[in-house]
Specification:
alpha+beta; isomerase; about 40% helix; 9 helices; peptidylprolyl isomerase; two-stranded antiparallel sheet; 2 domains; Serine Threonine Protein Phosphatase 5, Tetratricopeptide repeat
Length: about 375
């Protein structure tokens, strides 16, 4: 975690803490290339700290609380509109300032660059972060930094559902500032046994860590922290932990082919999917419940918990026939399970009531 720039001088580092909806996604740490574009860097650094106060537009010169208002998968995410209208902004030097130079290229993912109005010398507060190399932007947009930790956070924002490139769930910079030491705060610090960064790509592992089942222990700690939050009915935090555990499982499998067929990893993945489904039932997001249950059933088609939770989600979505199919299948695998038997009675009652309501509605329509 050094601070050394290309010429040996110290470059500043800043952070952006990001939320999607009510969920804390993680921290993005950016190195700013002060040694190459000092004026552009100072603009961004000050907008991260908020030290310049109120601008000429009457808005705080501060990224805190602003949104990533544009997200384009396999391209970039854009934010920094401190005027909050999606097409404006203001620099610390005035409304706009000039292009400093185009020395640094958009040759990697995670490059941080100034957005402009489509013509030279119109930089303000808006910026974008690339998720792929973008050489077509070279010579048009000034690159001034690069993501050193938290690229997974950037890509998570890039994957959000959009309409006309605008995220449908608010993607907000909940906090930001300058880092003054080697503790970049990328690891979890919520008091649970999960002390690992939100995205495994940012994890600096101890030497020989992969030995003795250590990876499984890490994933179990992440999962167990989700269980803790679930018991406390802090469902958004539980959801975040289970999704994090799934990211670590997928990452471990990609790192080591032996994990793909390792029963403990398969079991962990199934448990985290089912736990995620349980969380989304509590949050009344029934389509996501179905999605996680579908994934679990791809691993084990006889998993009665997945069948039962998918049935519950379909019941709430008024897909009663689909719910009944899953419940009857689950009952076939666990005929002594009283919870499943009771739910079958509930859904049967819903079906009968629904048919009666439809019959009465049709009768009224046919009356003269």
């Amino acid at each position: 975690m050094g601070y050394v720039g290309n010429d040996g001088k110290s470059n500043p580092f800043v952070y952006l803490d990001v939320k999607i909806g009510q969920e804390d996604i993680g921290r993005v740490v950016i190195e700013l290339f002060k040694d190459i574009v000092p004026k552009t860097v100072e603009n961004f650094r000050c907008l991260c700290t908020g030290e310049k106060g109120i601008g000429i537009l009457g808005k705080p010169l501060h990224y805190k609380g602003t949104k990533f208002h544009k997200a384009m998968p396999a391209f970039m995410i854009q934010g920094g509109d401190i005027s909050e209208n999606g097409c404006g902004g203001e620099s610390i030097y005035g409304l706009t300032f000039e292009d400093e130079n185009f020395t640094i290229k958009h040759e990697h993912d995670g490059m941080v660059s100034m957005a402009n109005c489509g013509k030279p010398n119109t930089n303000s507060s808006q910026f974008f972060i690339t998720t792929v190399p973008c050489p077509h932007l070279d010579g048009n947009n000034v690159v001034f930094g690069r993501v050193r930790f938290g690229l997974g956070v950037v890509k998570e924002v890039g994957k959000t559902s959009t309409v006309n490139e605008v995220p449908q769930v608010p993607c907000v910079i909940s906090d930001c500032g300058e880092l003054n030491n080697d503790n970049w705060g990328v690891n979890e610090r919520d008091g649970t046994e999960d002390v690992y960064p939100p995205f495994p790509e940012d994890w600096i592992q101890p030497e020989k860590f992969a030995e003795n089942g250590s990876m499984e222990n890490v994933i179990c700690k992440i999962k167990d922290s989700g269980n803790k939050y679930f018991k406390e009915e802090s469902f958004m935090h539980a959801c975040r932990k289970y999704k994090k555990a799934l990211r670590y499982i997928d990452w471990a499998v990609n790192q080591d082919d032996h994990c793909k067929t390792k029963e403990s990893f398969i079991d962990l993945k199934t448990v985290c999917m089912l736990n995620s489904a349980a969380v989304y039932l509590k949050l009344n997001d029934h389509k996501k419940v179905i999605s996680f249950c579908n994934d679990a059933l791809m691993i084990d088609r006889k998993n009665t918990k997945a069948l039962f939770r998918r049935a519950q989600a379909n019941k709430y979505l008024k897909n009663f026939e689909l719910a009944m199919v899953d419940l009857q299948t689950a009952h076939k695998y666990e005929p002594q399970n009283l919870v499943i038997a009771t739910e079958i009675k509930v859904v049967k009652k819903f079906i009968m009531d629904y048919k009666q309501t439809e019959k009465e509605r049709c009768t009224k329509m046919l009356k003269v």
